[in-house]
Amino acid sequence: MLSLNDSRLEFASDLLGHWQALRSDALVPAKEDIDPARMLRSLPYIAIVDLTNPQAVQTRLVGTGLRRRFGREITRTNWLEVIPQERRSIAALAARALVEHPCGAYYRFTVAYGDDNLVEAETLVLPLRSLAEPGAAYAIALSRDIALYGDDGDRSSATARL
Question: How many CA atoms lie within 13 A of 160 on its CB side?
Fold first, then answer.
């Protein structure tokens, strides 16, 4: 378990600060309150997904940096389709957990760029609710390629405690 002030989450400091400010005393902030101007540095690497159906996690917003990572436009697609087949069931379980027990998640993984270029990456996922759609569940995620920014040497994955 990570706390929200864990040093591994420094890469997501603007997202975390904005999310916590919006959250105030609520468990989960509303996606309608997200202000992209508060996260300009991270915006290319942010995605917002609809978790209402954890077996078909629909992307609603995908930053340009993530589009470059995957080599194609993935907005309005099932996020699970960009995950390797052998990891999809775990990803669907994680999506369900975000809905049933609103909490954040932090994980590290390897990204394959082309045929032989592998890059270590990390992602922080935080839950969102909708003011306009009661019962709908969303998440906002920030991902970064560690090789581009340096690595602290810790290769663990953990769930962030809110």
Answer: 24
Q: Is-contact 51 57, C-beta < 8 A? A: yes
Contact predicate 123/135, CB 8 Å: no
Greater confidence (60 vs 5) lies with 60
Q: Which residue has the tokens 């159906």?
A: 53
Average pLDDT, the chain: 84
Which pair of structure tokens corresponds to residue 13?
A: 């400091």
**Residue showing tokens 């995620």:** 141
**Span 60-82, pLDDT tens digits:** 999 999 988 888 899 999 998 88
For residues 41 and 36, give the distance between their C-alpha atoms in angstroms, rounded to a whole number.
10
Is there a contact between 15 and 126 (Cβ–Cβ < 8 Å)?
yes
